[in-house]
Write a structure and sequence with these properties.
mainly beta, Porin, 9% helix, 53% strand, globular
Length: 240
Amino acid sequence: MKARIAVAGALLAVTGAAGAAEITATATLTSDYDFRGITQTQGEPAFQLGLNYGADSGIYMGVWGSNVKFSNTEDWQVYGRRPSTEVDVYAGYAGGDAEETFGYDIGAIYYGYPNGTAGNFPEVYAGISKGFFNLKLWYSWDYAGSGDTAYYVDTNFNLPMANDFSFLVHAGYSGAEYHNNKWGRTAGMGEYLDWSLGVALDVDGWTAAVKYVDGSDVNSNPRNLGRFVFSLSTTLGGGE
């Protein structure tokens, strides 16, 4: 909690001294909060809001939040109260030129569940991008507060098409020592592959998207099987 307060305080201090052109706020309404192929809301809708500050130097930081609803396992009776809210803080550095050569991105994120009693964890990441393609590696030494390590590798393609449409392709692989269901979020996760295919439409600052999400061996939760996820989002700020 102290770490989240410290980073959030730093963000507010920076944004207070920055011009509005360097700050963006993104609001999203989605039919399901999909995290690496696994539902975080049991197939129910989620409202998500993020605030991001990006400096000309490439340094960025932000706060992002969503409602959550994890599976109702008996472990919650042992480990404590299930959270209903997720609040993440992150900071990083992005450089290079994805159009001319390669772009790169390194940073850290802390996943927090302020009204729960378990599951907070840190993660670091590093990625490269070229044109409409990016590849990123994520690593945590305390995944889901379990004390075990975990990593995730994902690649994404965002292919522009005619009439403000784009084709979305995602594939990810998760590997972990974390195999227990300590707090119900990714029970029996182990190693698995997730993927999605979708299409997005950008109109007047709004993005509507639909994707089909599936994977292998994500766990026994039927809500993680092949499913469509719809979302509507808009981003404010960032203009000169």
